[in-house]
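Fold this: CoA transferase
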Amino acid sequence: MTQAPNLPLAGLKIVELGHYIAAPFATRLLADLGAEVVKVEPPGGDPVRGWGSSIEGNAVWFSVHGRNKLSVTLDLKKAEDRDKLAALLKRADALIENFRAGYLERIGLGPDVLHQANPRLVIGRISGYGQEGPYRDKPAFGAIGEAMGGLRHLTANPGQTEYPPPRCGVSISDDLAGMYCAMAVTAACWQVKGDPAAKGRVVDVDLVSSVFSLMEGMLPEYGLFGWVRQPQGAAIKTAAPTNTYPCADGKWLCIAGNSDLIFKRLMAAIGRPAMAEDPRFANNAGRCENVAELDAAIAAWTKTKPATEAEAILEAAEVPCSRLFDMADCANDPHFRDRGWVMEVQDPLLGQVLHPAAPFRFDGVSPQQMVRWPGPPAGAHNDKVFAAVARGETRPISP
């Protein structure tokens, strides 16, 4: 499958100078939405191709990471390859890169140079700390974004000092920066395309502020009251009962029973209806004050049942709950399959592979249609792309 009808970014042309995660994640989202994405890799390929499991040297992760993209290889240390890149960018609407701040300028391809060649080019730049400021030249990876952006401080269990606060298990700051960059670049392209006189824009996104942007009301709370939010563990202070409870089989069950009506249903389901009538638990404020007693009662019940059984009982009572899914649960869940969140994709390099669907839906387009092809080998489209550039073609290039 190489074409999909009615994708909203069809015709938009993006060049990716991305490595590892942040910029490639941004362009994967844009490619899933129908944009033409030409991924420019060094001769050995994006270093992320060496991450994780592989089959005959082909990285399994890259099947998803590079899907719907065209791959070309260029050595940007060579003048002739920089010229090829400049020619490629002349036909592009946007460039997305995630080198360290200032790298494009150091190789003679800063925004001023690129805008001389293509005045309407949108340039999306992702870096650790941003293109300006006292930290701009410091190196950073995703873990640093979590640490400095305020997230890692919150992932500890309250009062625990023996172990460091854990990361969430994925490169969340890279992914967030990629999403913000995709959104901002699309907005800038909308502006440029809507105004024949518009000039290209430079979009500056960084890992730290991408994480920092998620810190809800913590900054104004600190500014007004001097409050510093501390780790909450599996619960939250503003709603109860909302927590994750141990089950008889060693699994965990997340339960959100914090509205008044749901709380009554929850207490009836676990055989404690009298607690729902107790004035101390009549509203959320009272439940938050007495949350330890509530959590103990709920945990006493969940510990007597396997997670799937406890989940089924609470679902029958219309209490929001879920087991903590691992990837096997996700891959085999009937709702994941019915919605197409888990897709079976035929990859020429790997065979049949499971892909996560794009996280958006459009009427008239199935999730399967949005994955036109899996991640290709490095440089797979050199001949086709550079031949089209040499001919001055502006229409989208198919693989």
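The first strand starts at residue 13 and ends at 17. The chain has a mean pLDDT of 96.
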